[in-house]
Amino acid sequence: MHREARLFGLFLLMLGLAALVAGTGALLSGELPREGLSCKAICGLSLLVSEVLGIQAGAAFGGGLLLTLGAVAALLGWRIFVSARRH
């Protein structure tokens, strides 16, 4: 069971790191990619923010949301990976 937990932790860590890279790219470029599975939720929320506060704010919100989700996923994945490795 520890092997599966380590594998899941590693997967979650890689997913979080990918989201961190995507969030950084979105913040630097000022726009979110409009393709992919996560686009429906994140792009929808950033579209709502852009309608109310403007395009720049929507892109910043979407990039910040990706960064936040990536950091949480990477931290959780790291904790699972390390705790399963100790046992």
If you had to describe this structure to a student in words, what would you say it looks like?
This protein is an all-alpha fold. The chain is 86% helix and 0% strand. It is built from 3 helices and no strands. The chain has helices at 2-29, 39-53, 55-86. α2 (39-53) runs antiparallel to α3. The radius of gyration is 15 Å and the shape is elongated. It starts with a helix and ends with a helix. The relative contact order is 0.25.
Distance between the termini: 10 Å
Structural class: mainly alpha
Helix content: over 70%
* Number of H- or I-type helical stretches: 3
- Oligomer classification: single chain
What is the H/E order?
HHH
Radius of gyration: 15 Å
Largest sheet: none
Number of strands: 0
Mean pLDDT across residues: 85
* Low-confidence spans: none
Shape: elongated
- In terms of DSSP E residues, the strand content is under 5%
What tags apply to this protein structure?
mainly alpha; elongated; about 90 residues; single chain; 3 helices; about 85% helix
In short:
The chain has 87 residues and is an all-alpha fold. It is 86% helix and 0% strand. The relative contact order is 0.25.
Topology:
Blueprint: H1 2-29, H2 39-53, H3 55-86
